[in-house]
Specification:
Blueprint (H helix, E strand, L loop, with lengths): L13 H9 L10 H21 L8 H30 L3 H24 L1
Helix pairs in contact: 1-2, 2-3, 3-4
Length: 119
């Protein structure tokens, strides 16, 4: 299930406009229902990725699609881990523990940057 932020018609970004155009019936594969549905899924993945990269691009090669999906899943996991560590950092009082948390956050941010390049 996907949830997007509300799109404002008067302030639609280029990637958002491309996403909306990709969802149109005419732009979906129409070989069979599963292919049609997969076209929508591909558009949603491309939109999620565009929120990170700034570029909306629907891929056609299945292997590359899978690689991007895995990278997106990893990106989301790293974001969640960073958010959790930042929450713990706010609650921590000991300076040495804060330093350790900051080092962990920095390492995860480096990993996040590496994963974002795969998108």
């Amino acid at each position: 299930m996907w949830v997007t932020e509300p799109l404002k018609k008067d302030k639609v970004k280029e990637a958002e406009q491309q996403f909306l155009e990709q969802l149109e019936y005419e732009n979906q594969p129409q070989l069979h229902l599963k292919a049609f549905y997969q076209g929508w899924l591909d558009a949603f993945y491309a939109y999620d990725i565009s929120r990170v990269t700034g570029q909306f691009k629907v891929l056609t090669e299945q292997e590359k699609k899978e690689q991007r999906r895995k990278a997106l899943d990893e990106y989301r996991r790293l974001e969640d881990d960073i958010a959790e560590l930042r929450s713990r950092l706010k609650k921590e009082n000991a300076f040495s523990n804060k330093m350790e948390l900051n080092v962990e956050i920095k390492e995860l941010q480096d990993q996040l940057n590496e994963v974002s390049e795969q998108l």
